[in-house]
Design brief:
Largest sheet: 6 strands, mixed
CATH superfamily of the largest domain: Ribosomal protein L4/L1
CATH class of the largest domain: Alpha Beta
Number of domains: 2
Radius of gyration: 27 Å
Number of strands: 6
Shape: elongated
Length: 206
């Protein structure tokens, strides 16, 4: 599979060949869904908590006698049926993460890349570099290249000027190759890979 290489100047430096085992798979929605769910659950903080009756400050004394009061039988004011009492069965701090085999995670990334390639939303960029960290100039170049809603993946290191210029552009994310993930790929319309990112991906799945 060959794809045309583009540049921010609008010129095409040539073509590159894509690995069919990475970019030529038939996308499976179930694998992508499992991976997105895995990512979203894993990033949840899980710090939600409430006060149960053991956490409420107050006396443990039985405030009304068991018999003869004409009312219900109660023990302490800290139970959940009273105002300012503890909450029953409330959330406690825990991890929401679920397990997903490493092979499935790797396969999900391949399917996400293949989905972008199949839909024509995969763009190979010669270099993600700019001379000056000017947001307006980069926005104009991306708009001209029809990349106003895109995830841009560079090599091991992202050009500092490019990262500074892109960080204030809405709907445009820039990540190094180490940060590539299924959720960010699917949440943007276009996936932009630089030559360096493409080489790193093919080496990763070799």
């Amino acid at each position: 599979m060959e794809i045309k290489v583009t540049s921010l100047s609008g010129k095409s430096p040539g073509k590159v060949s894509l690995d069919e085992t990475v970019f030529g798979l038939e996308p499976r929605q179930d694998i992508l869904q499992r991976m997105v769910r895995y990512q979203l659950l894993k990033r949840q903080a899980g710090t939600h908590a409430v006060k149960n009756r053991a956490d409420i400050a107050g006396s443990m004394r039985k405030f009304v006698r068991q018999k003869g009061s004409g009312g219900a039988r109660h023990s302490t004011r800290k139970v959940n049926i009273f105002r300012s009492g503890g909450r029953a069965f409330g959330p406690t701090p825990r991890s929401h993460a679920i397990a997903l085999p490493k092979k499935v995670r790797q396969l999900a990334l391949k399917h996400a890349l293949s989905a972008k390639a199949k839909s024509g939303d995969l763009v190979v960029l010669d270099k993600a570099e700019v001379k000056e960290a000017k947001t307006s100039a980069l926005r104009a170049a991306l708009t001209k290249a029809e990349l106003s809603n895109a995830l841009i993946i560079d090599g091991a290191e992202v050009d500092n000027n490019f990262a500074l210029a892109a960080r204030n552009i809405p709907l445009v994310d820039v990540l190094p190759i180490q940060g590539i993930n299924v959720y960010d790929i699917l949440r943007r319309s276009k996936l932009v890979l630089t030559r360096a990112a493409l080489e790193a991906l093919e080496a990763r799945f070799a």
